[in-house]
Write a structure and sequence with these properties.
Mean pLDDT: 93
Shape: elongated
CATH topology of the largest domain: Ribosomal Protein L4, Chain: A
Structural class: alpha/beta
CATH class of the largest domain: Alpha Beta
Order of helices and strands: EEHHHEHEHEHEH
Radius of gyration: 27 Å
CATH superfamily of the largest domain: Ribosomal protein L4/L1
Strand order of the largest sheet: 2-1-3-6-4-5
Strand content: 5-15%
Low-confidence stretches: none
Distance between the termini: 20 Å
């Protein structure tokens, strides 16, 4: 599949990029996408939630009143959950939310997500670019040139480029990743995917193993 290569001003360079049909033109597997996104979101959870239960509360263990004759329910400890300051009943405990998926399923999910974006004409290929110094203004000019201002966009680089990454970091709607950091969630979360020429070979190599 041939796609026109654009420059940072959104104009065609006269070159064509070849997008592999095995990556960008498959029948999307929605269940694989669901599992991969579920794993990604689960791994964002720290799982450190915790509240003290009855056995963990500091306090006296003395029986606070006699067993019978008070006219009220029996009570053995001030740490009981029914009293203010007592332990919590069935409180949250630390938990590992991580999920395991095999690599082939994750590759299928990412190819499915890219294919969906290609069907929506939401993928563009841009020639490699760099900035002399990290400047948010320079990255905003790139977004304007590509018509992506005020849109959620994902830029995929071939290799780590600190100047481009740092220039985009202050912009809430744009994210810059390398081809090895590409995930199903990030692909679907963006309205537009911008693939730099240098990233295409790495993407296809990673997803066609």
């Amino acid at each position: 599949m041939k796609v026109a290569v654009l420059d940072i001003n959104g104009k065609e360079t006269g070159r064509k990029a070849d997008l592999s049909d095995a990556v960008f033109k498959i029948e999307p597997n929605t269940h694989a996408i669901y599992l991969d996104v579920k794993q990604y979101r689960a791994h964002q959870r720290q799982g450190t939630h915790k509240s003290k239960e009855r056995a963990e509360i500091s306090g006296s263990t003395r029986k606070i009143k006699k067993q019978k004759g008070t006219g009220t329910a029996r009570a053995g400890s001030i740490k009981s959950p029914i009293f203010r300051g007592g332990g919590r009943i069935f409180g949250p405990r630390p938990k590992d939310y991580s999920l395991k998926l095999n690599k082939n399923l994750k590759r299928l999910a990412r190819k499915s997500a890219l294919s969906i974006k290609q069907q929506e004409n939401a993928i563009m290929v841009v020639e490699d670019f760099n900035f002399e110094t990290p400047k948010t203004k320079d990255f905003i000019n790139v977004l304007k040139g590509l018509g992506l201002e005020n849109k959620k966009s994902l830029f995929v680089l071939g290799d780590t480029n600190n100047n481009v990454y740092l220039s985009s970091r202050n912009l809430e709607g744009s994210e810059v990743v390398t081809n090895s950091e590409l995930s199903t969630y990030k692909i679907l979360n963006a309205n537009n995917i911008v693939l730099l020429e240098g990233s295409l070979e790495g993407i296809e190599a990673n997803l066609n193993k």
